[in-house]
Design goal:
Elements lengths: L5 E4 L15 E12 L5 E11 L5 E3 L13 H8 L12 H28 L15 H9 L5 H11 L7 H7 L2
Parallel strand pairs: 1-3
Antiparallel strand pairs: 2-3, 3-4
Bound molecules: zinc ion (ZN).
């Protein structure tokens, strides 16, 4: 017997300009996006597809629970990737947890340098990290976006909205270093 999947319709309140060229986006349809919760349950989100009036690229709405190209929801990844956290309540096998941690710790320096680049572009003060070589990932994240719940979404959103997100670790290593 198949368990019925829960569906959620995503409607972001804010109107985001095209990440590539800054022009207006218009809704052209929707698509289904599966996401796994902490308990291992699959939810189906209905995400709106948006097209740019200028460059014609297709984008998708980004609810805070989604990290692009990741199967687990953001809050779940949050508690897996920080060292010292014991994700005993996340229904995933050890290999999956390990891959998530490696992905995150590899890409974190890129994320943080992007956040600083975005801050400078917006005329804000970039984060100046103390010149202590032993800052942990946890401490660095705290300096940029704080530790309160939702910190990963606060990293993801500005990167996606400025077209700075990279799809995989290998793309990161080969293309945007
Ligand atoms: Zn565009």
């Amino acid at each position: 017997m198949k368990t019925p999947l829960l569906k959620f319709f995503v409607r972001c309140a804010e109107s985001v300009p095209c990440p590539c060229c800054g022009e207006q986006l218009s809704v052209i349809g929707s698509r289904r996006r599966k996401i796994k919760t902490r308990s291992g349950q699959t939810r189906v989100l209905i995400i709106r597809r948006l097209r740019c009036a200028q460059c014609r690229r297709i984008h998708h709405e980004l609810p805070d629970c989604i990290v692009p190209y990741k199967r687990y929801e953001s809050s779940c990844i949050e508690c897996v990737v920080l060292e010292g956290s014991e994700p005993t309540d996340v229904a995933a096998d050890n290999a999956t947890l390990y891959r998530l941690r490696v992905w995150f710790i590899t890409i974190l320096p890129y994320f943080l340098s992007c956040l600083n680049a975005i801050a400078i572009r917006l005329g804000q003060d970039p984060v100046e990290e103390p010149s202590v070589p032993t800052l942990s990932a946890h401490q660095r994240i705290g300096l940029y976006v704080g530790h309160t719940s939702g910190w990963l979404a606060r990293i993801v959103r500005p990167l996606v909205n400025t077209n700075s997100w990279v799809q995989t670790r290998s793309a990161f290593l080969s293309g945007n270093a």
